[in-house]
Amino acid sequence: MASSVDARARGARIERLAAEWLSARGLTLIASNQQFKGGELDLVMSDGETLVFVEVRHRSDIRHGHPLETVTATKQRRLVHAARFYLARNRLSCPCRFDVLAVIGSPPALDFEWVQGAFEAF
């Protein structure tokens, strides 16, 4: 059984690869792994004038379901809560979007599925 340290390191690596993949598609990384009471933001990126909160979901395979299925209504509420904290802490008022990036496989063989505007919040 993998330790939580291994899982955290693996998650950080997947998030780094996800940020690189999104950057190659025109987004700009602003921040990663932003922790807040009651939630966390994996990636904060910009798409032109829009601030994009990206939830990265990884599975090595889809035997137990697709990673997109793991972004439940509860998870969405936590993401919105964390985004509000981020905006307030940084005194930002700008258009925002919530994207989900599903990552399937193991590096270097990864498949990405990017859902822009995966859910509404504001």
Automatic annotation (TrEMBL):
Superkingdom of the source species: Bacteria
GO molecular function annotations of the record: nucleic acid binding
Matches recorded under Pfam families: UPF0102
PANTHER family, sorted: UPF0102 PROTEIN YRAN
Protein family membership: Belongs to the UPF0102 family.
Protein's name in the database: UPF0102 protein EKK97_14845
Lineage: Bacteria, Pseudomonadati, Pseudomonadota, Gammaproteobacteria, Oceanospirillales
